[in-house]
Amino acid sequence: MHLTAEQKCAYEEQGFLLVPDLVTGSDLEALRTRLREYTHGGRSTEKLTLQIEPRIQRGELRVAHPGDGIRKIDGLVQGDDLFRGLGLHTNIVDILQDILGAHIKMFRNALLLKPPTVGSAKGWHQDSPYWSVEPMELCSCWFPLDDATLENGCMMVMPGGHRLGALPHVSVTDDFVIDPNAIEPEKGVAVPMKAGSGLFFHSLIPHYTAPNRSEKWRRAIALSYLSSHSRYTGEGESPLYFPICGETFQGCVR
Ligand SMILES: O=C(O)CCC(=O)C(=O)O
To answer: Residue 250 domain-assigned?
Structure first.
């Protein structure tokens, strides 16, 4: 599933690209079923890192089942065979090679859940300012397991915003967001998506998701990748990243 020259150009110009039908049918259903086992019983989450919706964590909101309050699950690609298969899926890796080149590692994977009515917003932000990697040219594939709509908190992006470079970010309650003086949210566009599609986006694209005001789940996994030529700029040695394809280079991420 390689990109056409036109798609590649659109990604470079706009900083994002929607690709439909990366995974369909029973393969997509199997991922949903597996995730439900983690959130609502049947499978241990002991080896995973879970984050609960902040208002539920603080006791300001209640949900019927603990699984209805989970906001984030980290590490499924490392810990689960089906999600590992997704992280390494040929349809995704083909496109990543067109964007990042032949040598790729996975930087992170995070299931981002917006439970019905209680799922909160993720404010306008860029990913690279959160991440200790240079150059700031990572690529994420945001993959919804449910249809992502305006009502349940689909992705919103700022077309071309990756070309502004790293913008100043500030801490606010429960979040770390672009300084409101450095962004014009009215220029953002919503990207409703069918489950199983992928939104490939540059790590400097400003993006936002609204609260889930609907009765439907919005579950997505963010799969973030970097070129193996990238450099780790945090303290100490580079973490060991999950290998996707190609080689590792001296002085670069491990
Ligand atoms: O899925 C969401 O609600 C937010 C995703 C996001 O901001 C990210 O993947 O960086």
So the answer is: no
